[in-house]
Every structure is written in C-alpha cells, then in structure tokens.
Write a sequence for this structure.
C-alpha cells in the first residue's frame, strides 16, 4: 500500500487561540449580564415589588449583554494574522 503520512493533511483550527479566548470572555460577559438581570421578584405573587424596575435590571444588565455580544462578534471577525 502506500505511505499514508505523505497524503495526510494537517488539521487546523478555524480560528487562532486568541480568538477563542476573546470568544470565551464574551460569553462570560453575556452570562454576567443575565445574572445581573435575575431576581427582583416578590415572594408573594399578590404583592407587586418595585425592585424589578431598578437601574441594574433595566439599564445595566441589557447593556452588559449587548457589550458581550459585541465582544463575541469581534472575536469572530478578528484576524490575528494582521
């Protein structure tokens, strides 16, 4: 038969390691945003809790999630060879 090592292709990843590190950081920022959004409910369903409309849940958490999505998109588009 022939040598298979001559025709063997070297397996390469689609991105470099820096892209994967930035991607994981972006996913972490998205997870942080969703954690910041959690909570604020009332223990009694008949009682309304104003805490659900505070700054952290209405402004900060969605902004953190959008920043995380931006980081994730940047990690995909980043070309490490430049």
């Amino acid at each position: 038969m022939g040598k298979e090592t001559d025709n063997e292709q070297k397996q390469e990843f689609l991105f470099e390691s820096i892209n994967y590190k930035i991607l994981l950081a972006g996913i972490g920022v998205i997870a942080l945003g969703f954690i910041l959004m959690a909570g604020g409910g009332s223990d009694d369903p008949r009682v309304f809790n104003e805490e659900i409309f505070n700054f952290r849940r209405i402004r900060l958490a969605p902004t953190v999630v959008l920043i995380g999505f931006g980081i994730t998109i940047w990690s995909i588009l980043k070309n490490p060879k430049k």
